[in-house]
Structures are given as C-alpha cells and as structure tokens.
Amino acid sequence: MKKLTAGELAKMLSAELVGNNDAEFFGVASLSEAKANEVSFLGNKKYLDMVAKSDAVTILVPTEFDGIPAKGRAFIKCDDPTSAFSTAIDFFAASPVEYKPGIHPTAVIADSVKIGPDCHIGAYTVIEEGAVIGKKSIICANTYIGHEVKIGSECKIYPGVVIRERCILGSNVIIHPNVCIGGDGFGYAPSAFGIVKIPQVGIVRIDDDVEIGANTTIDRARFGKTWIKTGVKIDDQVHVAHNVTIGEFSMLVGQCGLAGSANVGQGVIIAAQAGINGHITLHDGCRIGPCAVVKDDVPPGGAIIGYPAVPARDFMAKQLVPKQVKTLKNKVKELEKTIGLLKEELEKLKDN
User: Which of 104, 176, 242, 283 is labelled catalytic?
Assistant: First the structure.
C-alpha cells in the first residue's frame, strides 16, 4: 500500500508545512468524504468551514490561510491547492491500463489495411479497406474504422467509437467511448416530392493532440472538410455539425452545439449547453457563457452570455434592472410620503 507523510508531500510541492510533519495518509478524498488516513484540499473559499469539520489528517490550503491544524494533523500551504492536489492524486492513482501490442483474433481487418508497429487492435474491431493506422496507436474493442480512414501515431481510440470513411486523424489523438466521427451532416432540402437528402461527401479532419469526450458527434462536411485543429479539447455529448472549423487550443464544454459552417477561432471557450448559429465566426480568444444562444459573430476576446447572447456587461446590466426598479419604487414611496407630510404642514399654516 502506498503512503506519504505530510512532510514528504510538502517537500514534493516545495510548500510550507504547518503542524505534524509525520502525519501519514494512504489516499486522497474531498473534505467532506476524507477519512483520518487521507489527504484533502481547500480549492474554493465556499468550503472554508469544511476544513475544521473534515477528518483528513492533512489538508492543502491557500498560502493566506491562517488556521491551526488539530493535534496530530497538518496543513500544507500552497499557491494553488487545486493544482497541487494533483500531485497527491498522481501518487496514489492506480497504474494506467496497459494495452499490449497485437491484434485480437476476433478483429476483422481488410487485406489492404496498413497497421504500423506496436499497435493494439482490440476484440471485435472492424477495419475496412484502405485504412491506415500509425505506429503505437491503440484501437480498443468494438471500434469501427471505415474505408480509407487515416489514423496517426500514438492515438488512443476507446471502445465503441465509429470513424467513417475517408476521415483523417493526426497523432496523439484521444477519442473516448461511443464517439461518432464522420456521420452525415444534417443536409436536406424541401421539395414538391418531400424532403430531399443533400449528399454529404466531405470528410472530418482532426489534427494532432485533440481529445474528444464520450458520445460526441462530429459530422462530415457537405463538401471539403469539418476541421478540428491542433490541441482542441471537446467534452462529452458535444455536437459539431458539417463544415464547422474549430481553431487551435479551443475548448468545447459538455452539450454545446455548433451549427453548420460555424467558424471558431483560436483559444475560444464555449461553455456547457451553449448553441452556436451556423455561418458565423467566433473570433480568437472569445468566451461564450453557459446556455448562451449565439446568433451573430463575436469579436476577438469578446465575452457573451444570455438568450439570445449579448456582451456579458450588457447581460449583467439587464439583470440589475429589476433591483434598480424596486429601489426607485421605494424611493418614490418615500418621496410621496414626505410630500404628503409637507402638504399637511402647509395646510396647517394656512389655517393659522
């Protein structure tokens, strides 16, 4: 069983120790769930009162924290307790699952497929004609790799992923379970004969160092490509429609959706459940708030929120209006009362 002392962890973090240098712990936990043999952390001031209540033998706290630990326990003061806590998590984490190179006998692989050295191909995987898999890539069980798909080196494709024909993945791409890449875009045209399907003949291109969360769908382009550029991180249950482009190092948070031909710049963050209109541009570095409905272009560095989305400052100003109106109504009542009293005094003076 792995164990650390408060002194050892403080040394690893180059942080100040307050309390018992020899306090031992054998795992990590939240403040509310920690046992007496575990380490925890204070990452948010709203949990401040939990520090005294927690059973954790050692707690990582901000540098400005001035509390005194109970006897036998310790505090470790850190510039960023949340990040520092990752060191403890990594120490106690179980060893990662090892995927040994080789092809499972139940995998169905076309004769023309090219598989690089040291790849792992899991059980019941299907790889169609003309596909190429780069070296040291891991393709887990029950995955479907379509015709002429190209996958770079050192990728990790978890179970149940579907990558349809001709799509291209770079290197070091991680795709979590049940992602669908290259399904048809939502292209239809009303006609006298009903709804006519518009062929979707493009591809999806995913560049290096991209990670895609479970159950996300990325549609193939009507023509050309849907393009996820280098370093993009996509959460679970995100929908990226046909011909969308996502710029380098942008982040798409859970359940957000982007309509066709939306263009997202570099370093953009789209928060959970936001909806992005088609054929608009979110310029570099902008921030889209949760549940925002974005119908127009957003300028570089812009921050918008709301339904429909507006600049964050405008949104907050609107939220203050009811409170301001209530304040003004109370002031009007006070003024009316004062005026009434003055009228009474004036009438008394007239009578005299």
Answer: 242
